[in-house]
Amino acid sequence: MREQITTALDALGLLLTAAGAGAAAGTVIGWGGLAVSGAVVLAGSMLAARRTGEKERG
After folding, report:
1. DSSP string spanning 3-57?
2. How far is CA 23 from the centre of its chain?
3. Domain residue limits, the chain
4. Looking at beta carbons, which pairs linking 38-47 to residues 24 or more positions away fall under 8 Å?
5. pLDDT in tens, 9-38
6. What integer pLDDT is reported at residue 16 of this predicted model?
7. CA neighbor of 6 nearest in space, from 37, 43, 48
8. Which is nearest to 37 in space by CA: 8, 14, 6, 7?
9. For the whole model, what pTM was predicted?
10. At what angle do helices 2-29 and 33-57 cross, to 10 degrees?
């Protein structure tokens, strides 16, 4: 149960970070700011996958 709550909070934090980055970039480059949001989500997903793989191996 604790792991599920932590995962949900991590996902929420990542989405809020992506939204903030997209909004900040959106004021400068317009709708291209969505690409920034996508990059933040992708980077977070890759990092989470890497950490999960390390836990399973170690």
Report:
1. HHHHHHHHHHHHHHHHHHHHHHHHHHHGGGHHHHHHHHHHHHHHHHHHHHHHHHH
2. 15
3. 15-53
4. 40/14, 41/14, 41/15, 44/14, 44/17, 44/18
5. 888 888 888 888 888 888 888 877 778 888
6. 85
7. 48
8. 14
9. 0.60
10. 150
